[in-house]
Amino acid sequence: MDTPVLQKKNYVAVYLLVWLIIVVIHAAVLFFIYGISIKGSVADAAVFNILFALAGYTLWFVIRYNLKEKPSGFDLLFQHLMVAMVIIATWFFVSYYTLSGVLSNDNDYLQFLQESIPWRIITGFFYYIVFVLVYYVILYYEDLQEKLKRESELQKLVKEAELDALKSQINPHFLFNSLNSVSSLTLASPDKAQEMVIKLSDFLRYSLSSNRKSVTTIENEFGNIKRYLDIEKVRFGKRLKFIAHIPDECLNADIPSLILQPLIENAIKHGVYNSSEEVTIKLSCTKNKDFIIIEISNDYDPDAIRKKGEGIGLKNIRNRLQLIYQRQDLLVTEANNNIFKATLKLPIQNKKDHEQH
Amino acid sequence: MSNIKTVIIEDEAPARDLLSAYLKNEKDIEIVDACENGFEGIKAIAKHHPDLIFLDVQMPKLTGFEMLELLDEYPQIIFTTAYDQYAIKAFELNAVDYLMKPFSKERFHQALEKARKRISDKQTDNKPVKSLVNKVKEENGPIDRIFVKTGSRIDVIPVSEIIRIDAQDDYAEIITAKKSYLKKETMNYLEKNLPQSNFIRIHRSSIINTDYMDKIEKYGKESYLVVLKDGSRVNVSKSRIKALRNTLGI
Hints:
heterodimer, A: alpha+beta, 2 domains, B: alpha/beta, Rossmann fold, CATH 2.40.50.1020
């Protein structure tokens, strides 16, 4: 947040060089064209220009500070006029009295100084305008850079989030074991292999086309977990049993997409993966005035101690529910009598509410 | 040359079917058993003494690695896994052969060919697998259950049920409220790998679970006894009193 000319050594050099050139030209013009004494020309050029160079330095802060406040067009113009007047008046009087003091015995010069007053004021305004324009260009450029940087960072974050979401949707164990099942089925029963490839494709398509924000119907979401379970059934055979009870009144209700599949996956991971006996996954849905309530339960082997890393799927769902409904209490899990149960409560929202999300 | 006796240990039926189908084309291979989990695997290995096993890493109840810990003799092993980066890293480090599911017929033949060669060379000690099992065992973090094999029977003891463990020569006697078990394991390994929060070695020859502690009794000048909930008394060696205090936060 320094002055732009002082941010880098190069800029300081350029700034000083520009002013040096102005000083030289200024002095030369006075000496050769106006016939002012060499001492008078140099002193005049040095005092007026060095003082304005210093004023220009302070001007930077004024502009930067002002720009942050973002005043409207008329206010901005008015402010600049006031600042310009203050700066130019100060600059002019300090220069004027310094020079008339220093060169009090050079009468030619004093006369010239007297006559040039209007031109000094005009030059002051001209300098001021040039400064302001240059500063605004620099600020605009910096702002643009900043914006671009922020945008690319944001994009990176979004990409990462999407990728994470994708990774959590499609469990690589599931994917590669399913592909292995397909590989096996192609030998024994090509028809079944084809069926499985189609189911797997449909499942992947649904997962890829939904994002964390999208809302779908329970019917669609149920279709997806049905496909998922069909695929898992090929892998686990009779170890996996699924019973669903979804009344018609629930089918058309809204539900965040891809929210049921992680719950089913969780049930399989902790039920079926860890048991060599038959495991039953039950899904039921009820609707009341305020909520759609979905219960998913599975039995599990009490001897099988839970694996580490449990709960990431559940945590993701909680985060999503928090994002969508701003509530923490919508997913409840309990384990009783070797049955694990997850209860999902989805608030029924009216359409207007809905569009906000 | 006699046939290569082979056991498939794999929890998913399609994966078992695929291996069987591939193996059936091999004249020298005799599939003696196909098992759905590690427990069946151990029984089958004890019964058939196979030359070769195909072993899935992820299985319910007893994983492939846990199963290997319980074996005394290792046949040649071809591991199979779908996606377990930790396991794959371990395989690579120990130069153990594995198949990544789904695998091609060529890859399958390659692995089988290597195993055949080792079997015909009578490389029976299978050092790479031994070092793999040890590595995995060490790196797995605190253990949450202990498997004890007695004859053909395997008991699974959740560590939360263990009251104390006593050293008995080369064995560790694991004592729970119901029963006590003998496992060939060192006290050092158990001390290191049981959850540090509630297991503490209070003597060269005993580890206790502080969750089952009843009280500490002082006897003599600087000697202590721990009384456990099952009524047993365990000496605390002088050098371990401080560690015990730290664990208990007193």
